[in-house]
Amino acid sequence: METISGIEIYPVIALLIFFLFFVGLVLWVFTYKKQTLNELSNLPLNDGKNNEETNSNRSL
């Protein structure tokens, strides 16, 4: 590795890419709508009837 010139920049670039990805992910998670998160978290507990009622309420 010592014979390859310019190779020391690749770990820095990889670190920056991963860091920016995770910062973006954290920002996206904290700015997500709480109502949408509640609806998504209740999906496994709902049966088909509740989902149809929720969908019909959205169109109003």
Automatic annotation (TrEMBL):
InterPro entries referenced in this protein's UniProt entry, alphabetically: Cbb3-typ_cyt_oxidase_comp
Q: Where are the transmembrane segments?
A: 12-30
Q: Does the keyword Membrane apply?
A: yes
Domain of life, source organism: Bacteria
Which of UniProt's keywords are assigned here? Membrane, Transmembrane, Transmembrane helix
Under what name is this protein listed? Cbb3-type cytochrome oxidase component FixQ
